Amino acid sequence: MELRDANVLVTGAGRGIGKFLLENLQPDVHAVIAADRDRNLLDALGSLPQAAKYEMDVTDPDLVTRVVRSIQSEHPGMNVLINNAGIIHSEPLFNLLSKEDKKHSVANWKKIVDANLSSVFYVTSNVVEQWIAAKQPGVIINISSISASGNVGQTAYSAAKAGVEAMTRTWSKELGMFKIRCACIAPGFFDTPSTRESLNDHMLKKWEKSVPLGRLGQLPELLSAVKFIINNEYFNGKVLQLDGGLTI
After folding, report:
1. pLDDT value at 158 more than 80
2. Phi first, then psi: what are they for 13, rounded to 5°?
3. For residue 18, which of 128, 172, 142, 123 has the smallest C-alpha distance?
4. Which residues form the catalytic set?
5. Is the CB of residue 240 less than 8 Å from the CB of residue 185?
6. Is it the case that residue 118 has pLDDT exceeding 90?
7. Which of 96, 112, 182, 209 has its CA 20 to 30 A from that of 37?
8. Cβ atoms < 10 Å from Cβ of 222
9. How far is CA 32 from CA 48, 70, 154, 205, 222, in A?
């Protein structure tokens, strides 16, 4: 798909990676569509006056169905979905130092899996339904994480991202006959506000030293990966690991 023909829907577009992708794809694609659960963040996207903005909590399946139908009705050319929405969470399976329940919180397990895994299923199933009904070819790009391989202290988050990668491979096999491609990007440690919120300075320096390239990833490098997947009609069913050579 040529970038100029892409009409891109980005979930979790109000901040962080989603906002960066939305802002920096806009000059090269036909149109961008922002979805976020926070209306205030959507309204604050002042640098994107032409972007369509939709309030959508991706963990609410009924709401997702309604909003995706509205998007397809109002923007029938939407042909690229970037499943970016999600939240990072660190919590070990068993915390010996905890003064209360030492086991991983069941509530947090459900919250993280819903936000990072179920949400991708809800949005994609509804988008694909609309694409197939309209005989619309499309591209699905799921944002995973290096943690999908299993990161200490991230039971729920790692499990959810591993599930995203499994769904990516499954959907690429199921949807190819409809000219719908599905691929995934698994970033390592990138220099983003969410990374700096979730890791203290000591941990950041530790990971920087662990990366063979000796630094965190930069968002323009992630943008290049997104453009590559949109452009390359033969890239399908694979996870593009963008981690500077780091393994965890």
Report:
1. yes
2. -85, 0
3. 142
4. 157
5. yes
6. yes
7. 182
8. 21
9. 9, 15, 32, 35, 17
Q: At a CB cut-off of 8 Å and minimum separation 6, what does 97 contact? A: none
Question: For residue 221, what are the contacts with CB-CB under 8 A and spacing of at least 6?
Answer: 242
SS3 145: coil
Total Cβ atoms within 10 A of residue 50: 7
Question: Model confidence over 94-109: pLDDT tens digits?
Answer: 999 888 899 999 999 9
- Tell me how many degrees the CA angle 168-217-204 measures, rounded to the nearest 5: 110
Q: What are phi and psi of 141, to 5 degrees?
A: -120, 115
Gap between the Cα atoms of 50 and 211, Å rounded: 38
pLDDT tens column, 21-30: 999 999 999 9
Q: How many CB atoms lie under 10 A from the CB of residue 152?
A: 11
- Locate 172 and state its tokens: 């690429």
What CA–CA distance (Å, rounded) separates 15 from 36? 9
CA dist 222 and 36 (Å) reads: 20
